[in-house]
């Protein structure tokens, strides 16, 4: 079933144009309306080129995870960052913070690029049945990111030089994940994270690409928190 961002009992602008011109939905058809962190099953009552109206039928699950995971992603090349945003949004990430790290080859993106990442997240929310897009950026320097990471109940750093297995169950409900860029996490950065109480963890015997590591680590954390069909601790 198609999902749309709503304003009251209306769907406006690009959302309405996509509904009417691309999907060619008609009055009487059912949709999912997303507004203010809520998902509602609704029935279209009128469809125009710039506005569609609907009547709510019943509330739906928000699709949001009880475990809030913030992904601190070492700056990586544009298409990789877009992949991270899309897939980690689908998996339920709470926020994504790009971080300029010692081995980053990519510079922080412009405001326009951050807007593009936010659009990718908003579209992924509609596809995967969530009700809130994750907060995206802006990019932080590593020292700034350290200050933010210190506030989490738990902090994990998948590290190619090794660490403890990421096992659970996890009782923490505010988790930070630091993922290195293409060149990996520098030793001095790993030491700084450890000084905060962050835990170096391993994702197995194979070295994962930066755009893979964050998704795998996030999936493991969600599983250990009981978000993937298991029992929450």
Measured between the Cα atoms of the first and last residue, the distance is 32 Å
The biggest beta sheet is recorded as: 8 strands, parallel
**Number of separate domains:** 2
Number of helices: 6
- Helix/strand/pairing class, anyone? alpha/beta
Q: Unreliable segments (pLDDT under 50, ≥5 consecutive)?
A: none
The percent of residues in helical segments reads 25-40%
Q: What would CATH call the homologous superfamily of the largest domain?
A: SPOUT methyltransferase, trefoil knot domain
CATH class of the largest domain: Alpha Beta
β-strand number: 13
What fraction strand? Answer: 25-35%
Assembly state here?
single chain
Write a compact overview of the structure shown:
This protein has 233 residues and is of the alpha/beta class. Helix content is 32%, strand content 28%.
What does this protein look like?
The chain is α/β, with parallel strands linked by helices and 233 residues long. The chain has two domains: 3-60, Beta Barrel (Ribosomal Protein L25, Chain P), CATH 2.40.240; 68-224, Alpha/beta knot (3-Layer(aba) Sandwich). Helix content is 32%, strand content 28%. The protein is built from six helices and 13 strands. Strands 6, 7, 8, 9, 10, 11, 12 and 13 form an eight-stranded parallel β-sheet that branches. A hairpin with a 3-residue loop joins β4 and β5 (51-60). α2 (78-91) packs parallel to α3 and α2 packs parallel to α6 (210-224). The longest helix is centred in the middle third of the chain and has 18 residues, at 111-128.
